Amino acid sequence: MADAPLLEVEGIETCYGLSQVLFGMSLTVRSGEMVALMGRNGMGKTTTIRSIMGLTPARAGTIRFGGQDVRKLPAFRIAQLGIGLVPEGRQIFPNLTVRENLVAASGNRLGSPDPWTIEKIHALFPRLAERGNNMGGTLSGGEQQMLAVGRALMTNPRLLILDEATEGLAPLIRDEIWNCLSLLKARGQSVLVIDKNVGNLTEIADRHYIIERGRAVWSGTSGQLIAEPDLQHRYLGI
């Protein structure tokens, strides 16, 4: 791994109108690392992601990606620098086919020597190959999540962010998403993931941040998190 973090978030503060949600949130993701952002609902996880992506700009603090300060950049420029987002709620294009969803934002702007292609996405999620001509809006929730992951990968991102990776999915589909993340980790893909399944996260993630009321209150490895069940109960409701 490189010494400098791929993503570095330092002390960001973010508001929705007069309502402040983040109060000095900080985290880092290094190249090739999988990091989990955990916490109860309403603590600021999604707002952290939206701030990183420029969708809800932070009013203070620093966000660096690849060594570049991106806090004041528009969202499309941040995405072009190499961040692929799988948003909460999937937000696929319902009136485009599965294939059209995949190619709509595809590209290899950063010149990856082994870029993602439709064929590779089909190998990762065979159901998407079977549904290639179906409209996005006709897919099941699990299939839409596969499509959202595939669409983000087709941008060939340096960092993949997943907000609620397996929320609301059937157990078999959840297993497919976790298997996908394991394969991505083996491939060396940098990942920042939000999910409520602590068991799966501790199996796959390198490090974890727990967010409480808009700030990171704990960070550490999977082994450290497993060793502190009281911490899980206090902040994650387990």
Describe this structure in words.
The protein is of the alpha/beta class. The chain is built from ten helices and ten strands. Strand 9 (207-212) and strand 10 form a beta hairpin. The chain is globular. The mean pLDDT is 93.
Characteristic key phrases:
238 residues; 10 helices; 10 strands; alpha/beta; Rossmann fold; 6-stranded mixed beta sheet; 25% strand; 4-stranded antiparallel beta sheet
What helical percentage do the residues reach?
A: 25-40%
Order of helices and strands: EEEHEEHEHHHHEHEHEEHH
Name the shape in a single word. globular
Distance between the termini: 32 Å
By CATH, the topology is: Rossmann fold
Annotation, overall tally of beta strands: 10
What share of the residues does DSSP label as strand, in percent?
25-35%
Uncertain parts? none
- Work out the count of structural domains: 1
Question: What is the correct CATH architecture?
Answer: 3-Layer(aba) Sandwich
Q: According to CATH, what is the class?
A: Alpha Beta
CATH homologous group name = P-loop containing nucleotide triphosphate hydrolases
